[in-house]
Amino acid sequence: MSALFSPFDLGRLRLPNRIVIAPMCQYSAEDGRATDWHLIHLGQLALSGAGLLIIEATAVSPEGRITAGDLGLYSDDTEAALGRVLTAVRRYSAMPIGIQLGHAGRKASSQAPWDGGQLLAPEAGGWQTVAPSAIPHAAGELPPVALDAAGLERVREDFVAAARRAARLGIDLIELHCAHGYLLHEFLSPLANQREDAYGGTLENRLRFPLEVFDAVRAALPAGLPLGVRFSATDWVDGGWDVAQSIAFSAALQARGCSFLHVSSGGLSPQQKIPLGPGYQIPLAAAIRRAVQTPVIGVGLVTEAEQAEAIVADGEADLVALARGMLYDPRWPWHAAARLGAQVQAPPQYWRSQPAEHKALFTGARIGQR
C-alpha cells in the first residue's frame, strides 16, 4: 500500500491521503473579496484528489495584505464573498478545505508579482506598513512603523476575528502564517525584531507574540477545529532565525496543542542564500519531526510521485505539500496514484477519463450506457 495515499488524522479531521495543496497567493481579490477567479481556481484544485486544500494567505486586516489584490477575511463583505465561493466548491467536492490567516507586516503594500512586486509608497497607492521594529525589508524602502502595545493588541484581535469568521464559514482547518518574512516571522527573527521590551531580544521574548496570537486564536475556535502553524525553519542568513530556534518554537506550539507544523523557509531577508534543489526544505521538516510529536507537513520542490512517497515512507514528514507543482498540473494526485498503484477520489463527471491501463484508479468508478 502506498504511504502517500494512506489516510491521516489531524485531530478529528480525517484526510484521505497525505497530499496537501499549499496556500498560493492569487492577487486577484477586490478590496479583500474573493472573486470568480477564486471560484475557478479553488474549484479545479478541489477536484484534484488531494487530501487537503489550504486557501491562500488571507489577510486579517486591510493593512495586513501583501498587495491590494490579496484575499481578506476582515469584514462582513469579505466573509460573504468567500462564503459564496466555498458553497459552490463544496457542492461538487468533499475535499477538506483549510485557510491560511496572515498579516504581511513590513512586506505589505507591495505590487503584484506581475507588476514587479516592489513596495508601493502611500502616495503611489500603497499604505504605511507595520512591523516589530522600524527596520525596512530592503535597503532604501520606507521603514515600517514599530507596533506599540495598542498595535499588538489590535493585531491579536484581528487574527481572532478572522479565525471566528473562518469557523462560521465551516472551514475545516486553520493555519497561522509565521513564514516567508511576514509579520509573525518578523517577530521570531532577530534580523527583523530588535525590540527592547518583552517582545524582543531573547528567544523567549521573540516567541512571545506569535505564541500569544496562537493562544488567542485557539481560545476563540471550537475545540475540535485543527489549528496549525506554517513557519520558516531558517532565514538562510547568518545570525538569523535557524533550525535550533525553530525546534524551540515547535516545542512551545506542541505544548499548546498545535495540530500540525508546516515547515517552509526563507523570505525574511534579501540577503538569504537558499540552496535550491529537489526537496530542498524536506531536511528541515525532518529535523522538526525528529524533535516533536506534532504532525509535520514538508514542502519545497516536491515534483515527483516517487519523491513524495519516499518522504512519507521514510518518516521525513507526515504529509507532503505542493504549490507551484499543483498549478502546473492540477491533476498531480491522479497521476501520482497511477504511478504508485493507488486509488484517488475523482468526480463522477470525470470517471470516463480513467485510463484503460489503470482500471482501479478512481475510487468507486462505474460507468454504464445504452
| Uncertain stretches of 5 or more adjacent residues | none
Q: Which radius of gyration do the C-alpha atoms yield?
A: 20 Å
Largest sheet: 8 strands, parallel, barrel
Q: What is the count of β-strands?
A: 12
Strand order of the largest sheet: 3-4-5-8-9-10-11-12
What order do the SSEs take from the amino end to the carboxyl end, as H and E?
A: EEEHEHEEEHEHHEHEHEHEHH
Helices and strands: which structural class? alpha/beta
Shape estimate: globular
Helix content: 25-40%
Averaged pLDDT: 97
What gap, in angstroms, lies between the N and C termini?
Answer: 36 Å
Number of helices: 10
Q: What is the strand content?
A: 5-15%
Tell me about this structure:
- The protein is α/β, with parallel strands linked by helices and 370 residues long.
- Helix content is 32%, strand content 14%.
- The strands form 3 sheets. It has an 8-stranded parallel beta barrel, surrounded by 5 helices.
- Helix 1 packs parallel to helix 2.
- The mean pLDDT is 97.
State the main characteristics:
single chain, 370 residues, alpha/beta, eight-stranded parallel barrel, 10 helices
Summarize the structure.
The protein is about 30% helix and about 15% strand. The protein has helices spanning about 35-45, 75-90, 150-170, 185-190, 205-220, 245-255, 280-290, 305-315, 325-330, 330-340, and strands spanning about 10, 15, 20, 50-60, 95-100, 130, 145, 175-180, 225-230, 260-265, 295-300, 320. It is globular and about 75 Å long.
